[in-house]
Q: What sequence folds into this?
């Protein structure tokens, strides 16, 4: 019942996102036709939303039955929250738990994979932690966010990590784990730290990101790269009264299954927005010195 109520809430959100897109497109023929296209064939649209996709569980290491139930409850909630924020995934998600005895964090490590068309989240987890501790950790939301786009290859790690860093916190914000102002304040303090690494006047943003990754500067690279989506989100909020996650809801339904590479994803985001904002922003990240990209932060 809880799942159905949540699904119904998500359906309302998706329809609202589509309606919002439609309303913003009154003076924009291109976007209008996209929205019309999205709304055409209503039966097919609703069917694809209500078709059930499963979470499929696997375990590495010893977990008691009670621990397994606790972890399943936690991840079921993360999955539903992700569906509400980014749109319901149109595929099964495989969840692999690997037992960890880490005392530092409930989920010390995780990674997502999409090998052979299997969308999988792998989580190293200490199952003795409380449900509250598990929910307060960002790793699961981060790995679930990765699955919302195809695997882009190690060359574009800066984009996919910045993407998951931004969207995991958007999901957590929608879960009520922190507010928009708390998100903004966390975001600005992390970006201020990362900015010091991005002060080059000769290397591009992407070159600096790659070099940070090679030197284990993961946190600075993840947060620095999240500026790409933050910039888009800010512009959407200001000019179209939308959030970037509204674009993701359209993306899940229309483009996720067909896209293969970063250029496809960027093109699809622009189609969903109805403006060439992503491709224009990508040109800046590719060609401008990192200090120029970061100067407004
Ligand atoms: Zn990641």
A:
């Amino acid at each position: 019942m809880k799942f159905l109520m949540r699904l119904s809430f998500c359906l309302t959100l998706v329809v609202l996102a589509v309606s919002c897109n439609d309303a913003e497109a009154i003076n924009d023929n291109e976007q209008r036709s996209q929205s019309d296209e999205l709304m055409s064939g209503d039966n097919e649209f609703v069917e694809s939303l209500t078709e059930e996709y499963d979470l499929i569980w696997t375990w590495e290491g010893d977990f008691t039955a009670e621990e397994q139930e606790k972890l399943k409850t936690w991840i079921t909630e993360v999955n539903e929250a992700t569906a509400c924020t980014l749109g319901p995934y149109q595929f099964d998600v495989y969840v692999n738990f690997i037992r960890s005895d880490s005392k530092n964090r409930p989920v010390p490590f995780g990674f997502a994979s999409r090998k052979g068309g299997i969308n999988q989240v792998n989580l190293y987890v200490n199952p003795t932690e409380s449900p509250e501790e598990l929910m307060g950790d960002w790793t699961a939301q981060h790995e679930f966010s990765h699955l919302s786009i195809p695997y882009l290859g190690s060359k574009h790690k800066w984009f996919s990590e910045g993407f998951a860093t931004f969207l995991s916190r958007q999901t957590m914000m929608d879960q009520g784990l922190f507010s928009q102002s708390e998100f903004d304040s966390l975001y600005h303090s992390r970006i201020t730290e990362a900015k010091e690494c991005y002060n080059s006047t000769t290397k591009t943003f992407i070159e600096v990101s790659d070099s940070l990754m090679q030197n284990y500067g993961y946190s600075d690279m993840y947060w620095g790269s999240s500026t790409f989506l933050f910039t888009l989100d800010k512009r959407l909020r200001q000019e179209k009264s939308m959030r970037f996650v509204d674009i993701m809801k359209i993306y899940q339904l229309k483009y996720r299954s067909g896209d293969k590479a970063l250029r496809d994803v960027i093109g699809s985001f622009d189609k969903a927005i109805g403006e060439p904002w992503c491709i224009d922003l990508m040109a800046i990240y590719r060609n401008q010195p990192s200090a120029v990209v970061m100067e407004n932060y």
Residues 2-24 form the longest helix (23 residues). DSSP finds 15 helices and four strands in the chain.
